[in-house]
Amino acid sequence: MSMFFFKQPQTAIVSGIVATGGSAPAFDPATVPNMRFWYDPSDLATIAQSAGKISQINDKSGNAYHMTQPTGAQQPTVGANMNALNNINTTFAQRMALPSGVFDFGSSAYTLFIVLKKMSLTGDDRSPFCFGDATNTPQIGFFSVNGAQNAFMANGNAGAFNGGSFAQLTDPHIASIKATPGASASSFRKDGNVVVTPYTVTMPPSAAVTYGVLNGISPSGGNGGDFVYGDIIGYQRALTKAEENYIGAGLAAKWGLAWTPIP
Asked: In which domain, by residue range, is 115 found?
């Protein structure tokens, strides 16, 4: 009589993402719930370009919040300046607009990630990615203020970036913002490290958010810079620390960067 023994597959848990067979799944930010947008320049299938100039970057979240720039002179270019992967390159005058309604910055929480490298050491007041109001005033995003510091903006509240500025740091980094209603619930991080002491963020923003822009403070231009972009990801929720570590570590492995686990 023959006997057969079946071994139960083992389960591995990686930062809240479950896989079978004892190995971690391939990094996929879309497995984290409540994704609002995901721009991945390393995936050329999501980029509409002509001679290297980008007219559209498709949103990989499935929500169809595609970034666009119809004007040729203002179109960013495709490059490979981070970890030999395709990325978005901008100069001062090149920018892209996010569609209306891309994010509900009302009373709900949100979490943003951006992989970013500053190419030029010149120039002040550069804004690589932001959301602003009807007066073209940034409310949420990432900034370099007068070339002297970085500022993270969450609902109109600014925090200084300890350890240099986008105008000075030419090494790429993973910057993130998590804004949650409630005392000491919001955080600004660089590569997983807290760079601003958590504080209370007023919900909703001090002024209604009406636009989003890549490289600049408004869809009409101004305050752009020489940046290289990797993934840009937004969630309509405050991620757990395990989820933040999953996204951060996955982006770090993808772009050849470091991520300090959030305890």
From this structure: 31-255
